[in-house]
Amino acid sequence: MSDSITLTAHCLCKLHNFTTQVPKSRLPLPAYVCHCTSCRHSTGALYSIDLPWPAHTRDVDISALQTFHFSSKTAIHFCGTCSTPIFFGHPADPDADLGVFTGALTNPAADLVNLKTHIFVEDTQDGGASVWLQNVNADGSEAKRYKHRAEAADAEELPASWPDAAALTGFEKRTADKLNVKCKCGGIEYALHRGDYKDGDDLPWFVVPKTHKLIAGHCVCDSCRLFSGIDVFPWTFAELKNLSFKDGKKVPADMSGLKAAVDSKEAGVGSLKYYASSPGVLRFFCGTCSACVFFASDDRPKIVDVAVGVLDAPDGARAEGFLAWSFAKIQKVEDVKGGWREGLVDRVQKEIQEWRSGRGYPNIGDE
To answer: Where is the CENP-V/GFA domain (predicted)?
Structure first.
């Protein structure tokens, strides 16, 4: 029996593939969760997770990947065709470890990943997804949460009670009737409007009666995972007629119209691109910074999934004043069966439910 495991990372379209060997004695590999505003708006998720790629950076050929300079010290290396972010890099320090996005990794049957710390949690205002990712490691260890950086001399650990429940918007209260939809680089600036819904109407399935909040939930299918580089990805849903460009002009009202607008580089579209991940399905993303933005399907051409991480909500990353979270069932769990993600997703589902119950939120989706 081999004393090592092959670690593989690849993109959704499989144009880019990276492999290396890891001694089993080194497992699980330490991973780090960042909740900063920049990570949310460059992935479309509520956070990013990466772990050090166990091969010397100089031995990894990333020249075919597209690069977005995330900050003065950090870059995201992603597939320009399908959007998958594969590595965080440090262009100014060619010997620094590459950080591989855990969502780009395959799903071998091993205890592969151990979450160590959550950083920049204060950026979320409401705790974001950190509130249900603290106790999801197979060995029972806790991933501690930090206000900013964990390794700083003055690092401030956040207590389990942060944020205070009284500071949260909650399930019943509404806030803004419009949220900005923004990627990290600013190439995409749209607006998502609540919509003129009335309870007497035949409400769309994703609109909650009374509050008219939009339902949000999680998907762990292979395509969403690879599209975003995130293992558990958050989506909400909207009618395209309730989206507008930065200049106020309405976004095309159906999938084919949005595709045509991107193809013709219509004013207002910005840096939006798309990838056809399967027949009748388009995944829209920022071609500059890789942020996931929309999922569209021929099955419901006037409705799109909207990546929650690109929403700019005044009450926090979860946008509770605009969204109603469905915590009952993580979608497409069949895709994680038999590998390291199966246990992770089971534990995330459990912690989500415990957090929901503690907040007294209804169990939307438990039908």
So the answer is: 7-133
**Whole-Å CA distances, 235 to 61, 197, 306, 332:** 33, 20, 6, 13
pTM: 0.97
CB contact at 8 A, 239 and 201: no
What DSSP state is assigned to residue 164? Answer: P
Angle (CA) 160-150-44 rounded to 5° is 80
Judge whether 367 lies within some domain: no
Q: Which residues contact 198 (CB under 8 A, 6 or more apart)?
A: none
Q: Are residues 188 and 153 in the same domain?
A: no
Domain that includes residue 268, residue range:
170-359
Token duo for residue 58: 């100089």
- CA–CA separation, 252 and 240 (whole Å): 7
Q: Are 268 and 343 found together in one domain?
A: yes
Q: 356: which 2 tokens?
A: 């929901």
The C-alpha atoms of residue 19 and residue 249 are separated, in whole angstroms, by 45
Both 217 and 318 in a single domain? yes
CATH of residue 258: 2.170.150.70
- 184 and 138 both lie in a single domain: no
pLDDT digits (tens, 9 = 90+) for 185-195: 999 999 999 99
Give residue 1's pLDDT: 59
Strands 178-182 and 75-78: unpaired
Residue 12, CA distances (Å) to 117, 160, 331 in order? 27, 36, 19
> Parallel, antiparallel, or unpaired for β 178-182 and 214-219?
unpaired
CB 24 within 8 A of CB 4: yes
Q: Please determine, for residue 59, whether its predicted confidence score (pLDDT) is greater than 70.
A: yes
